[in-house]
Amino acid sequence: MSFSARYGTLIGLTAIVALFSALSPEAFARTSNLINITQQMSLLAIVALGATFVMSLSEFDLSVGAVVSMAGIVSVSLFGAGWGMVPTIVVTLVAGFAVGCISGFLVATWRMPSFIMTLAMGTIVGGLTFWISDGATLFGNIPNAFRDMGRGYLAGAPVLTLWALAATIFAAFILDYTELGRKMLAIGGNREAARLTGVPIVPTSVYAFGLCTLLAAVAGLLLTARLGSAHPTGGNGFLLQAYAAVFLGMTAFRDGQPNAPGTLLGAAIIAVVANGLTILGVPNYLQDIFTGLIIIAAVLVRNVGHKTQ
Amino acid sequence: MSFSARYGTLIGLTAIVALFSALSPEAFARTSNLINITQQMSLLAIVALGATFVMSLSEFDLSVGAVVSMAGIVSVSLFGAGWGMVPTIVVTLVAGFAVGCISGFLVATWRMPSFIMTLAMGTIVGGLTFWISDGATLFGNIPNAFRDMGRGYLAGAPVLTLWALAATIFAAFILDYTELGRKMLAIGGNREAARLTGVPIVPTSVYAFGLCTLLAAVAGLLLTARLGSAHPTGGNGFLLQAYAAVFLGMTAFRDGQPNAPGTLLGAAIIAVVANGLTILGVPNYLQDIFTGLIIIAAVLVRNVGHKTQ
Amino acid sequence: MLEIEELRKRFGGVTALDSARMRVAAGRVHALLGENGAGKSTLLKCLSGVDRPDGGTMRIGGYAYAPADPHAAEDAGLRFVHQELNLVPSFTAYENAFVGRRYPRRLGLVGWREMRARFAEVRDRHGMELDIDVPVGRLSTAKCQIVGILRALMDEARVLVLDEPTASLSEGEAKTLRKIVRGLADHGCAVIFVSHRLDEVFAVADDYTVLRNGRTVGEGSLSDETRDQIIALMAGEEFKHERAALTRTGAPLLKLSGFTPAYFRPPLDLTVNAGEIVGLYGVIGSGRSSLLASIWGANSLARGEIRIKERALPAAGIAERIAAGVAYVPEDRRNRGLVMHHSVLDNAVLPRLSLYRAASKLPVPSWRAARRGIRRLLADGNVKYGKLSDRVSTLSGGNQQKVMIGRWFTDEAWLFLLDEPTRGVDVRSKAEIHSMCLRLAEDGGAVLFVTSDIEELLMLAGRVLVMAHGRITLDAPNHAVTRQSILDATFHAPDRDPIRKTG
Amino acid sequence: EDVAVLTPYLSSVATNEMVETFTTESEAKGWTVNVLDTRGDFQQLASRIEDVTNAGVDAIVLVSVDPNQVGDQVAGAAEKGIPVFALDGALADGVSANITTDNFALGTILSDYLFESLGGEGDIVKFFHSAHPGVRQRELALDKALEENPNIKVIAEHYVQVPGPIDNARQAMETFIRQHGEAIDGVWAAWDEPAIGALLALQSDMPDSDIVIAGIDGNPQAVDLIGQCTNLVATVRQDFPGIARAAVEEIETVLDGGEPSSKEIFVDAMVVDRESLGADCK
Ligand SMILES: Nc1ncnc2c1ncn2[C@@H]1O[C@H](COP(=O)(O)OP(=O)(O)OP(=O)(O)O)[C@@H](O)[C@H]1O
Ligand SMILES: Nc1ncnc2c1ncn2[C@@H]1O[C@H](COP(=O)(O)OP(=O)(O)OP(=O)(O)O)[C@@H](O)[C@H]1O
Ligand SMILES: [Mg+2]
Ligand SMILES: [Mg+2]
C-alpha cells in the first residue's frame, strides 16, 4: 500500500489545517483556537467512538442521537428531584447502556436489521425523553461540580478534550487489546465464520451496542454540563455526523475497518472544517457546500492512492 | 420457509390495520380515511422506492432528503422567474438525476463509502438549496395545473396515490424485468462476483444512484404541488423514514433483498401507524413510543417465523 | 491455439508469476499443475482479464490477446470457472448463469421463463442434478460448484478454463464432469484443467504444464510421465506419500444416539473412539456436512443425545464444544471459515484468543505472544504467506485452507471435525495435514472427517463410514472395504426418500 | 370539545410554552387537547392536519407555522366546518384568526434596545436562522435598523443549526471570541437559545468582558440568566401565555357560534431586562 493510501486521510486533515492557516493566520492558526477546536470536537468524538463499536459489528445504531438527548434530560430531571451527583450519573449511564443492550439483544437473537431496530429504538427513547421533560428545556439545580466536568481547563487542556482523549484510549483498548473487541470485529467481518469459530454472537453484540449507547450517554452528560441545560432533542444532530466521523476514520487507517484513532481523526476533520469556515466568515450556504466538498476531498486523497486492483 | 416467515410483514400490516379499526371504527376504518392514508404515504413511498435502487446495490444514498427539498425550491424559483411548467419540471428532474449520477460515479470509480459520499453530497445540495432560496420558504406563482398534479382525485383515487402506484410499478419493473435492475441486484448481492463476470460496475451504479435521486426529485415536485410552497429543508424528514420503509420491505419478501412491493408495504406501515395514532388522539410522546414498538413488532412477526438455523 | 510467454505478475512484494509459459492445443485437455501458491490461479486470472499482467504476451489462434476486463475474455470465446466460486447468493442458479451476460428477452423485458428453460436444458444435457429454483445461497458448496460449471457450459467456448472444479465434488459428479470435459475436447475446445487430485489429472488430461514459484518448470504430454515424476516436478524434490494404517482404538470420545441434524433426517447412532481416524464418505447432499455441523452444535434444529467423553452436551452450543476440546473446520472457507478481509494473524488467532492472554485471568491478548505462537503454528502447517498482517484473501486458495485448519492444531483440541479438509490442497500439504491427523490420533485424540475423494478416504481413514440420504449405510474398518463396496453403499436405496424439497 | 394542536417545532422553547399554556387553559375549560409535533416536517404536518380533520375534531390550532405552507389542508378543514386558528403564525384562507406578536416589531425592539445600550456605535455578532419564517422577519428588522444606524457594524454572523442551537451557537461564539476578541461589543441573537450559547462561550473564555447580549422570546432560562447579572442583558418577551390565553378565548367564542373578535390579534411584547426584573447588579 502506498504512502498516500496508508495515511491519505491524515494528509487530508493536515492539508485542510494548512489551508485554513494560510487563509487566516491570525485567527485560525492561533494556538488558542486550535486548542479550542479540540474541545469543540470532543462530544462528537465521544458519540462517534461509541458508534465505532457497532460499526465494528457491521451494524448501525441510529438511536445514539436520542440517547444523547435522553441522558441530558434524565440527569437534569434527577438533579431537579434532589438527587446527588453520583447517583444521578450512575442512573443515567445505566439507562444509556441499557438502551443499547436491548437493541443489541434483539438484533442478535432475532436477526433484526439493526438499521430499523435502532431507528425504532431511537423513536421510543425520544418519546420517553419527551414524556420526562414535557418537551421543555430543563435547567436549574445543576450542581457546579457537575458543570465543571464539562467546562474549563485542567492542566492547561480543556476538560472536554481530556474526556475525548480518554474515550479514544478506551475504545482503542477495547477494540485492539481485548478479546471482546477482536470478537466484535470478527463478527463484523464475517458473522457466520465468527459463529462457527465459537465467537458468542449474542453477548458480543449486546456489549457492542451497549458500549455505543453508553458513550452516547456520557456525551449527553457532558453536553448538559457544558450547556447548563438539557433540551429534549439537543443531541439529535450528532447522529449523522457521528457516522460520518466513523466512515472517515475507516478510510483513514486499517484497510477499511472501524478503528478508534481513525474515528477521532474523522471527528477532527468535521470540527476543523466547521471552525475554519466560520472564522473565514463564509456565508452559511457556502459553508455547507465547502464542508461537503472538503469531506469528499479528504476521502478521495486516500482512495486515489488506494485504487489498485 | 413457513407462512408467517414469508408473509410476516404483510400479516403485521393487516394486524395493525385491524387493531386500529377495532379501536376507532368510525374514524380510522372509514373508507375516506383509508383512501387518505394511501395519499399520505405516497411521497414517502416514492422517496423510499428510489432508495430501493441504491439499497439493491447494497449502498446508501443519504442525499435523498436534501434532493427532495432542492427539487421544491428549484421548481418554485423557476416558476417565480416566469418559466413554464414543462421546462421547470424537466430542469428539476434533470438536476435531481444529476446529483445521484455524480454520487454514483464517485462511489463506483473510487470505491468511496457511499454513506460518507452521499452525506457530503446531501450537505452540498442543502447548501445550494439555501443559496437559491435565501433560506426562506417560497410560495406564490405556482401554476394551478402544477398544483393539481399533487392534489385532488382522478377517477376516484387521490392523484398522489396514483403517482405512488406508478412509481412502484416503475421500480418493480426496473428491478425485476430489466437487465439493469438485475445487474444492480447482482452487484449488491456479490460485488466481486459481478465484477468477475463482467457486470459493468460504474454505469450500473451511476444509474442506480441517479434513479434514486430522480425519484426523490419527483417526490419534491409533488410535495411542492401538494403544499403549494417549498421549504429549504422541507424534505429532510424523509431520509430516515425512507430507509426504514426499505428495510421493512426487505424483511417482508424475497429473502432479504430490497424490492419494490416490500418498500411500498413498509411505507404503508409507517403511514398507517402515524395516521391511526393521530386519529386515536394518543399524546405525542406516546405516539413515538408506540410507533417504535409497532415497527419492532412488525419486523419481529416475520423474524420469529424465520428463525430457523 | 493458446500461447502464453514470459507472463509476469507481482502483488506488492509478492511475485506470483515470474516468466510463466504455457501452450494449449485445441481439442486437448491441458492440466495446469503446481503446489499451493505456485501461481496457477493468478495465471488464469490474467487470462480472464481480472488481473492485468505486468509483462509477457498471450496469443490466441496466433493473434495477440490482452483482455482489459472479463467481458473481453468472454467475447474472445473463453469461459472460466474460478477457484473461488463467484455467485450471487440471492439469485437462483439459472439467473446466476446469466449474470454478466445478455439475458434472454421478451418484448424487451427479462425473459424469466426462457432463462430458466435454457439453463435447465444445459443441466439436463450434461446430466447434472440440481435444484435450480432456490437462491444459491441455500445450496451446498458442491452444488454451487456445479452451478459455476454449468454457467461456463451455457454456450460454445473456444477455451474452457476450470480452476479446481472437482475440489468439493464426489466421485459420481467428478466422473460426470470428466466425461463432459472429454466431450468438449473432442469437439475441438481447448480445456485448461487445474486439480490437485493427480489420479484425476491422469484420467482426464492429455498435456500438462507445471508451475513452481511462478515459473514454468515442466511441460509435455502426460502419457510420457508418471505420477511420481510430476510430483517431483511440482515439489522440486522427491516426495513419497505414505498410506496411513491406524487401527488402534481406545475409549469412546464422541457418542451420538438418536441424533438428528434436522427434522427431515432419520436419527443416527455413532461412536468415535480415541485414536481413531474416521472418514465419512457419500455423494453430494447425503447429509455429511450437516451431520458434522450439528455435532459441532452449530445447528439449532439438531435434536438427540450427544456425549463427548461421556459428558452429555446440549444439542446446540458451540462454546461447550470448544471448552470440551472439539475443533471444527467447515468446507466453505470463504463464507463460513475465514474473515477474508482480515489479516492472517486475526484469522489464525480467532478460535484461540484466550490462549495468548497477557495474564491468565485477563481477557486481554498479548499480541507479541500471539504473533510468536501463530508464526510457529503456520510454519508447522507449511502455510505460505507474506506477512502476518496481510489480508488472508491474498493467500492462494490452498494456503487459506491450511490457515483454517492449522489454527486449531494447538494442545487444547483432541477431537477434530473436518469437512473436506484438503479441498484444494496440494499433494505435499495434503500429506502434512494427514500426518497432523495421525499424530493427533496417536496421542489419543480422534478425527472425524468428511471427504469426497475416495483416494483420500482410503489413504487416511482407519474406519470408513458411508452416508446416503442421511443414514449411515456402511461402517467398517479400512481393511474390510473396497472401492466397490464403498460405492455400493453410496447408492444404497432409501426406504423412503427422507429429503424434502427446500423452499 | 376536541381540540387538535399541531406544530412542527414543539421542541422549541417558545412554541412549547404556548402549547403548555394553551393545554392547561383549555383543559380547565373541559376540552380534550391533543398535541402533535412533526419535527420540522411539513409533509407530515399536512398529513396530520388531514387526519385530525378526518377524525372530526372541533377546532384545529396551528402553532408557529405559516398556514400558507399547508394551505390546502387548512382550506380542507375549513370546508368541513372546523375552525382553524394560528398561534404565532399568519393569516391564510380558512384561518379563523391568527393570534401573534409581530415578529418584525420584535426584531425592531431588540435591535433598538441593543443599539441603544451600545450607545449607537459598535461591532456586533449576529446569530440567525432564516429557515423559520418568523425568525426571518426579525432578521429583516435588523437589516432595517442597521440602515438607520450606520455606526453599528456586523463583524461576524452565524447561521445557527437546529437541533442543538445552544451548543452550535456556543461553538461559533468561541470561534468569534478567538478571532475578534475585544472588538466585539454586542451580540444580536434572533432568539434566546443562541443568545444563551453565546453567553456560555463568553463566560468560559472572556469572563470579564462587557459584551452585551440580547435575544428574543423570553425563554425562562434566558430570563433567569438576565436576573443573575450576566452579559445576557435583555430579551424581548413575547407574551406566549398571553397569546395562548387569547387563543383559548377566541376559540371558545367561535365554538359557541360567535365570530372571532378580529382576524389578526396582536399580543404585545415587552423588553425583559435587569431593570424590569428588579435585579440589583451593582
Ligand atoms: N491479490 C493478491 N495480493 C497479494 N498476493 C497475491 C494476490 N493474489 C495471489 N497472491 C499471491 O500470489 C501467489 C500465487 O497465488 P495463486 O492463487 O496463483 O496460487 P495457486 O497456484 O492458485 O495456488 P492454490 O493451489 O493454493 O490455489 C501466492 O503466493 C499468493 O499469496
Ligand atoms: N431445510 C431443508 N429442507 C430440505 N432439504 C434440505 C434442507 N436443508 C438442506 N437440505 C438438503 O439436504 C442435503 C444435505 O446437505 P449436506 O450439505 O448436509 O450434505 P453433504 O453430504 O455434506 O453434501 P455436500 O457434499 O454437497 O456438502 C442437501 O441436498 C440440501 O439441499
Ligand atoms: Mg489457486
Ligand atoms: Mg459437504
TrEMBL record, chains A, B:
It is found in: Cell membrane. The chain crosses the membrane at residues 39-57, 64-83, 89-108, 115-133, 153-175, 196-223, 235-253, 265-283, 289-305. Keywords: Cell inner membrane, Cell membrane, Membrane, Transmembrane, Transmembrane helix, Transport. InterPro entries: ABC_transp_permease. It comes from the Bacteria. It is a multi-pass membrane protein. Pfam families: BPD_transp_2 (PF02653). This is ABC transporter permease. It comes from Chelativorans salis.
UniProtKB/TrEMBL annotation, chain C:
SMART domains: AAA. Keywords: ATP-binding, Nucleotide-binding, Repeat, Sugar transport, Transport. It comes from the Bacteria. InterPro entries: AAA+_ATPase (IPR003593), ABC_carbohydrate_import_ATPase (IPR050107), ABC_transporter-like_ATP-bd (IPR003439), ABC_transporter-like_CS (IPR017871), P-loop_NTPase (IPR027417). GO terms for molecular function: ATP binding. Residues 2-238, 241-494 form the ABC transporter domain. Pfam families: ABC_tran (PF00005). Belongs to the ABC transporter superfamily. This is Sugar ABC transporter ATP-binding protein. The lineage of its organism: Bacteria, Pseudomonadati, Pseudomonadota, Alphaproteobacteria, Hyphomicrobiales.
